[in-house]
């Protein structure tokens, strides 16, 4: 027993040492992917960081400068990667693979230039190497990132850039800037992980020393569900398998021949594959991970992209296109219709239209774009200037809200406070609160469920026209998302609702939309995705409200 304890202690310390580069690199990957950018270029960042760190430590005889040059090399490669995937919107998997290949080619070139060898850098003296420092850095980094993501505005914004970029942009925070922060941080931390390999675990850089650790860090990130502490524990688990394979080399089983070293060395990678096979399907990635952020070039009525003129809307090219392209262009046409319904204007800027086509082709939803419009800063300003809803519009709004309240499982808490324009989002200036604060007035005391038409009308009698459109649109979305669990009930709800709205004597833009037969609309809803069915309902709601407001 006395001899077992020193062995276990040495084994544990060895595992912590070999897991240090993984922890540092995985924290970099976490920052990038929590911001919404897939980063399989971690391997390349580690390679250049390991080489630059060892080369600088050898030349300047300073491990501190080695760390600095390694981090700068990783950030430089991350900047190149960020340029292609953020403003240029290149495919993130392809770009990451290209960066890994670039690192594999660039490092031997510089190694041959400076050291007359494509395989390694000169060996370092002990005084020029790191000793225990990277282990401390890794622990501090995990704790710091956990606290930043959980308790600071920056962490909140970074998470929203990967989860709900539309909401972040609506609050006035640049999604592009937050993603740049995430990618550059991934380069810095991965470069530091490479430095830990070359001047902490080793005494020089050698070709192949990274050996897939960037991908192992990515696997740990998935295993840890994109959370700092679970990800670090996953890295330690992989470190244990790596330390175990080192201990098992040259060991014989049951007194027989020794296990071939090649089989022992694949142990960490085999465990990585097994972990991914068992957990990748259970881990929920940030919802907007891998989706480029399309910057809307002109959104307000007074800007160049949207005009109140009645020119012919932009049409997609007439050339033969694939099924997926047809779906994308169909969404592009719906986007034009959305602008018309929400703002009562038409889109004429081809560049804005093409930007949204690109957004739709990358998986953007109609619901997300609609929310971006009705909760944008421009819509907020228009709400303040919008006239009060006339009696006919208010009556229609109240009837529809009453219908929704009776259908929805968890009724919406209605109050007169909601009749005000969308509130400005403000942020604390001191340390008393790290989360955004949305100022609201004290709510009126009401019963938990308000579904009476007259009572709803009384609550919203002083609301503007655009405020009622926004509130009703949000209520429709909430009802549809709640009903999405049962497609049959949702389809029937859509059919009856569409038939009822068809009797309002309003042109809905297409002949089939004006069908009064609920079975027709129910059948159509069963054959189409929720996103499209939701928009068809929102389209009808907005057109009726626009008609009633303009008619009187």
List keywords for this structure.
552 residues; ABC transporter involved in vitamin B12 uptake, BtuC; 2 strands; 1% strand; 3 domains; mainly alpha; two-stranded antiparallel ribbon
Sheet bearing the most strands, described? 2 strands, antiparallel
Contiguous runs where pLDDT drops below 50 for at least 5 residues = 295-322, 426-447
Number of helices: 22
Overall pLDDT score: 82
Number of domains: 3
Q: Give the termini distance in whole angstroms.
A: 91 Å
Q: What is the radius of gyration? A: 29 Å
Helix content estimate: 55-70%
Structure write-up:
- The protein is an all-alpha fold.
- The protein folds into three domains: 4-250 and 259-279, ABC transporter involved in vitamin B12 uptake, BtuC; 306-364, no CATH class; 382-425 and 446-551, no CATH class.
- Helix content is 64%, strand content 1%.
- A two-stranded antiparallel sheet has the order 1-2.
- It starts with a helix and ends with a helix.
Summarize this, please?
The protein is mainly alpha-helical and 552 residues long. The protein contains 22 helices and 2 strands.
